[in-house]
Amino acid sequence: MKIDNKFPGKDVSQDDLLNKLPLVAKKNPDHHSNFEIAGITFGGKSLPIMAGPNMIESEELIYDIANNVKKSGAHFLRGGAFKPLTFPYRSEKYTETREKGIRWMVDAAKKVGLPIITEVMEERYLPLISSAADILQIGSRNMQNYPLLTACARTGKPIMLKRHYGASLRDWLGAAEYLMVEGNNKVILCERGISTAHTHKATSRYLLDLQVVPAARELTHLPIVVDPSHATFWSAWVEPMTLAAIAAGADGVMLEVHPDPSNAAIDPLQALDYEGFMNLMLKMKKIAVAIDRDIV
Ligand code: PEP
Ligand code: MN
To answer: How far apart are CA 230 and CA 254, in angstroms?
Structure first.
């Protein structure tokens, strides 16, 4: 039987590119978007590095981390105030800092001179978050929360769309189309690990899908960044997979950094300490140069 790729399948068809992904799809093989956010170019020769804690735990902590990652050369401060925590129970440590956290992050970022990326969980906090953040992060779990995508896109703010850990490239690009159809052109894709049977460590929930970087690059003009921290869930694997992500053509990386990773409130196994981040920055620069890119 002839397979007609007009019908939707797991993979992206020619019909999808033409009719379902007209804004996200490349117009020609050399089509690559690049755009500036807070003076930093995404999708250009230089790779933006986003770094910071998983959660904005306290005013002191976010300032210390902001100061440190800035000194090591990060371009954006990451950190969550509104978090998609897996279980509903909270303790003094395992909690969200919400409005307070956003305020602390804004102060810290301003003091050290870094722009901000932070997650949006609910539409009702969009006015607050979009007034604070330079990039709105849509988390893995919300990748297909279409009303949230539409609301975020309508703010006109740049958006980083994390791939759901179970999503095909087709679903991911479809979600990006929801952002672009609202007239928002500053859309960044972020691979952050997928669910598979084998992750090579009991504590690692995901597997970094580096193959999706060149695969996405064939189809879309949007910049593609990689978050090896959430993907590996294991700090010792973060360095090799970050370097591999750059070698694979990622347009930037997001990394979790904490002064005392084992005592981080959330995801203590995956954060790099300050020295680890500084050393990784030096190695990332070497890999970037080897493939004709740079980190400045
Ligand atoms: C995060 O970046 O803090 C986060 C929750 O990531 P993800 O949505 O990829 O799990
Ligand atoms: Mn996390």
So the answer is: 9
Q: pLDDT tens-digit profile of 237-289?
A: 999 999 999 999 999 999 999 999 999 999 999 999 999 999 999 999 999 99
- In the structure, ligand 2 is a single-atom ion and the residues with CB under 5 Å from it are 54, 267
Cβ proximity of 37 and 158 under 8 Å: yes
Q: Where does the chain have alpha helices with state H?
A: 14-15, 59-72, 98-112, 126-132, 146-154, 169-180, 212-219, 228-232, 235-247, 274-290
- Alpha carbon nearest to ligand 1 atom 10, residue: 140
Q: Which residue has the tokens 């990386």?
A: 253
Q: Tokens 């959660």, residue?
A: 55
185/180 Cα distance (integer angstroms): 6
Q: Which fold has domain 14-24+35-86+93-290?
A: TIM Barrel (3.20.20)
Tens-digit pLDDT profile for residues 94-117: 889 999 999 999 999 999 999 999
Q: How far is the CA of 32 from the centre of ligand 2 (A)?
A: 29
